Amino acid sequence: MPAQPTGPTPTRIAFLGPEGTFTEAALHSLGTPSEGGSVPAASVPAALAMARSGEVDAAFVPLENSVEGSVSPTVDGLAAGAPLVITREAFLEVDFVLGVRPGTGAVRRVASHPHALAQTRGWVAAHLPDAEVVPAASTADAARLVAAGELDGAICPELAAHRYGLEVAATRLADTPGAVTRFVQVERPGQLPAPTGADRTTVTCLVADRTGALLDLLTEFASRGISLTRLDSRPTRERLGVYSFSVDVEGHVADARVGDALLALHRLCDEVRFQGSYPRADGRSTAPVPHRVHDAAFRDAATWLDGLRRGTAG
Ligand SMILES: O=C(O)C(=O)C[C@]1(C(=O)O)C=C[C@@H](O)C=C1
């Protein structure tokens, strides 16, 4: 069951457009936006910029796909620039059709979003071996370009083919059936969604280029019984070999073990960027954690230390 944020619902949300993208479908899966409430953006960076400037209340963007992995423009776009925090997420199963203008003969130039091209590489090699493959800003943008006569075929959601008046020439193009993309809503920092018991926290950490830096970082989570659900290393663009780590972990910053891990990361890393605690939407609850890292264990330990410092306990 999709989890809902507890803060005020944003009224205007920019999404990776144009109309007909998987991103739009995922946004609508969370509830029908009010009239004019969802605003198409030309790219992920454009959607994030609109949220940062206040032109919209939030941006809705793809973050990771079960077959192709992370969506780099989103991971990188959240790691740099004014802070944005994730407030909710959605999952959508993605499959693709080949959209063509009615009456099209040979498909010489076929386009889609790079993530979609990567997920249909095998199908294209088998069925359109001679076609030129062209990257597009999104799957729906590819459909729009085909409708405008600039390309012959779009690898896109069925909805986008219909939206741009294309004929569906082939279905089920995904090389790996059942692929799922995870989308996130990001907003300027404000009130956090309340903990639900099945939450996720996202942080990006910059650590000095030294032996064991990643191991040290992971140890802070492992030693507190915190499970990771995503780990990305991304170049900082300074020089070869310097990376930042973007991680999703189970739990909410309000949970003692997660808060304590973030304190440790703050001491350990050159920079820690908190990118939100929010309900997870995959319906999975947090893996059971040992008693030693329950909130009560942290409270007990703090009381004990306080007693030592006051000289009232031994
Ligand atoms: O182009 C779209 O329709 C998108 O929503 C983007 C996107 C992505 O970035 O991964 C979303 C899901 C699919 O994996 C392919 C493309």
UniProtKB/TrEMBL annotation:
EC number: 4.2.1.51
Catalyzed reactions per annotation: prephenate + H(+) = 3-phenylpyruvate + CO2 + H2O
Single GO MF descriptor: prephenate dehydratase activity
Pathway connected to this protein: Amino-acid biosynthesis; L-phenylalanine biosynthesis; phenylpyruvate from prephenate: step 1/1
Keyword Ribosomal protein set for record: no
Start and end residues of each ACT domain: 202-279
Primary enzyme class: lyase
Keyword Lipid metabolism tagged: no
Record-linked Gene3D superfamilies: 3.30.70.260, Periplasmic binding protein-like II (3.40.190.10)
InterPro entries xref list: ACT-like_dom_sf, ACT_dom, Chor_mutase/pphenate_deHydtase, Preph_deHydtase
SUPFAM superfamilies: ACT-like, Periplasmic binding protein-like II
Cellular component terms (Gene Ontology): cytoplasm
Annotated Prephenate dehydratase domain residues: 12-188
Residues the record marks as site: Essential for prephenate dehydratase activity: T181
Pfam families hit by this protein: ACT, PDT
Keywords assigned by UniProt, alphabetized: Amino-acid biosynthesis, Aromatic amino acid biosynthesis, Lyase, Phenylalanine biosynthesis
GO biological process, one term: L-phenylalanine biosynthetic process
Top-rank taxon: Bacteria
CDD domains referenced in this protein's UniProt entry, alphabetically: ACT_CM-PDT, PBP2_Aa-PDT_like
PANTHER family listed in its UniProt record: PREPHENATE DEHYDRATASE P PROTEIN, PREPHENATE DEHYDRATASE-RELATED
Protein name as annotated: Prephenate dehydratase
